[in-house]
Every structure is written in structure tokens, then in C-alpha cells.
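--- STAGE predict ---
source: upstream dedup step, 1 unique chain passed
mode: sequence only
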Amino acid sequence: MSATIKDIAKLANVSHTTVSRALNDSPLINQATKERIKEIARQLNYTPNVNAKSLVLDRSYNIGLFFSTLKSGTSSTFFHEAVKGVHRALKPPYHLVVKGIDDYGDPPAITRKDFDGVILMSQSRDDHKFIQVLLDQGIPTVVLNRPIGNNAKVLNILSDDYKGAYTIVKYLIECGHRHIALIEGKSGFYSTEQRKAGYEEALRSHQIPIREELCVAGSYDTESGYLAMKQLLKLTDQPTAVFCSNDDMAVGAMKACTEAGLRVPQHISLAGFDDNHFSGYLTPGLCTVKRPIEQIANVGTIRLFEAIEYKRLRPETIYLDTELIIRDSIAHLHPCH
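--- STAGE serialize ---
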């Protein structure tokens, strides 16, 4: 018969409540007592009954990782990096449940009994209603990837996509490019808006006109990048460089260039955004902006556990830096400054 909390309590000469708190690293129990109780548990080969524990403590031990949608606009790399970052910080006995908001009803049918905490990888302002339901239910919530304003009482962690886009377009300009096109991301996504805004500001700050025909819609997938580039290549005055709002679309754009008999970067330069795992292995290697999605997800999960275990979640907005990754897909029309 397996050992129980009562067995540990008897040997430690403490109450079973103290044992339960010690095994869950409660700040109410001093470190020496915790270590003594945990050592007794190890000697008895104690294994917690998660189902019984969840009933006693009114917990599900589920951590929800929600995306705005898993059906379109969520690239495989973005998904992988987010899950990887959360999983690095996940600890027993918690389980990770991955969902799309659009899998739930309107209003979303979600309660405190379903999740002990939620990490929302927000991509669109359409998430507002879902966030409000989480707050109304008293579910500790961390919102990643999109700023949601100071009124919501949640922790908000994201990268500065505007600055990242500005930086890479500025680099293109410094390399002599003036006819720079943009393949936009999915319509309605905050990241799409910020990357376009950064692109436009870089052009304006260097007195380069913004040409409407050089801004083509995409959807963050490879096919949309391919189709958008084919559209750009039909222009009489073709761009010398194209900034793709993510690396997946840059791959599609590169294929369209190859089919048209154009070499990158000899005939046309390409830049991306995200620094996906494959970006450095393309030929040529893709110049891009590294967005720390795994780090954002990891930090968010660590802070969420602090909120769950210690009832601490300070509402604030944290920006993590992007990084310009220079590779071989951009030609220097003259030496960079």
C-alpha cells in the first residue's frame, strides 16, 4: 500500500495540513521544515494523488495556453516556440492544455474549475471579450504578444515589433535600397499593424515616399508570400528589396523569385521577421528580425506560477527586445553606413 500524507505527518510529528503545504512549497512553511518533510516523503516513496489533491484544494492543475486561432494566421514555428517556452517552465503536477479561442463559444464557456491559470498568446483585438471572461472568473491570466492597455489587471509581455520592423527597413535603406516593398501579415492582427507602421516610419524618416502599390496583403503563411511576390514582380517599376512580415512568407517570396529567374540577393533582396529555425539554413540565409517568442512564453509562464502559488501577479507591461539578424539575402547597393 502506498504512503499517504497522514503517514508522513505522523513521522514528521506535524499536521497533515503542514505536510500538504510543505510538499507544495507554501511560503507559510519554513525551509527547514519543508526539507525535513520532503526527505521523509522520498524515503517513503510518496506519490501524490493528483485527482484527490485537486478536489481537496479546488484545483484543476490545468494551465491553458490559448491562441486567438489555430486555424489560420498562426505559423507552425510561432506555435512551436510558444509551446516550447511554456513547457520549459511547466512543473508537476500541472498539465498544459493548448486551445484556440475560436474553439470556445460566445461568450466563452470557461470557468476557474477548468484552469488554474491561463497564458493567452494574443494576436488580435478580438481577444478582449475572452480576456474579460477570464478576469470575471478570477482566473490568473498572463497576456503575451499584444499590448492590451493599462486598464486590464493582467501581466502583459511582448516584443516591440514596431521597432524591429523599423530597424530592418532602416538597414535596407542604409544598404542603398529606395524601392522597398512590404508583404503584410494577416489582416486584423496587431503584429501586422505594428510591422507595417515600423516599415512606413523608416521610409518617412529617410524621406522616401510610401507607395501604395508596394504594400501587398499576406496571411503569414508560405503560400500568401508566394502569391504576394508574384504580384509585386508584375509591377513595371519592381522593388529592389522586399520586407516580408514573417519568415514563412519570405520562403514563399523566395520561391516566386526563383521561378521568375531572379536570384536573391543579386536581382532582388529579401528580409523577414521572427528568425524561424530554418531561416539561417536557406540559400541564401535570410536576413530577419529575431522575435523572442520562446522567451516571452517562458517568462510569462514563470510569472503565472507565481500568481497561482503565491497570489502575486503585478499588472504591468514588459517589452523584450528584438534583434536584427544580418545574413546574405540583402544586397548592398552601396556600402552600409
